[in-house]
Amino acid sequence: MRILIIEDERRLANVIKRGLVEEGYAVDLAYDGKEGKYMAELNAKEYDAMVLDINMPYIDGLTLCKMLRNEGIKTPILMLTAYAGLDDKVKGFDAGTDDYLTKPFSFLELRLRIQALIRRSKQEVNPIMRLDNLELDSSRHEVRRAGRQIKLTPKEFAILEFLLRHKDSVVTRTMLIEHVWDYNFDSMSNVVDVFVSSLRRKIDKNSEIKLVHTLHGVGYKASSVKKT
User: What is the pLDDT of residue 39?
Assistant: First the structure.
């Protein structure tokens, strides 16, 4: 999943990014409202969620949120603020934010709120996704197949999660790049293929039913097909 963080406190922004990257998210950073507006508009369809600070240079978070909503951008938005008053939260919700988090906050709470926003936006109530005997728990960051836990890297986990969100449908290489890697990724490299191959080995090892498939020249698919 790909997240846009718009936060003018660079140290906090980088701490959030580092934590989310460790959880398998692709994260883009903007340090003021003007830069954030540009990135949000440029990649609106690729972002699964945005995190906005209220107090930012050039364009504040409330104004930016209103602008994005008026442009028809429906990406889930989590607003960060140092103000805990009810009136401030009402202003945030009126501006179009989906959730509100008061500073200081724990990273765990931030991550859980982001996950909940993404699930709601995709109309997913249960954090567990299933395909055949494979289970992915996004809240616990765990993957099991036939009850056996499979250890994945953060990027492998993100790829599998995206494939399962689109199970039985073709996921192109471009779709994976846009949602699993950040703004600085070199799209000409073969990194995507390397990660998918590694994921397939871990998921399908010693299993009669293969779940991760490469469609040469087209993309990838998560589906259950019996070995012939």
Answer: 94
Letter string b/e over residues 46-72, b meaning 16 or more CB atoms within 10 A of that residue's CB = bbbbbbbbbebeebbbbebbebbeeee
Q: What distance lies between CA 135 and its chain's CA centroid?
A: 18
Residues in the chain: 228
Element (H, E) at 77: strand 77-81
Vertex 177, ends 175 and 182: CA angle to 5°? 130
Residues 6+ apart with CB under 8 A from 47: 2, 3, 4, 28, 40, 75
Given this model, what pLDDT does residue 83 score? 75
Enter the pTM of the model: 0.72
DSSP strands (E only) in 82-150: 99-102, 128-131, 134-137, 142-145, 148-149
Q: Do residues 169 and 127 make contact, with C-beta atoms less than 8 angstroms apart?
A: no
Residue written as tokens 């790049």? 177
Q: What is the pLDDT of residue 160?
A: 95
Share the mean pLDDT of the chain: 88
Of the candidates 174, 205, 204, 210, which has an alpha carbon nearest to the alpha carbon of residue 192?
174
Low-confidence residues of the chain, pLDDT below 70? 84, 124-125, 187-188, 225-228
Do the beta carbons of residue 78 and residue 32 sit within 8 Å? no
pLDDT given at position 125: 62
Give the domains, in start order, of the chain with CATH numbers: 2-121 (3.40.50.2300), 128-226 (1.10.10.10)
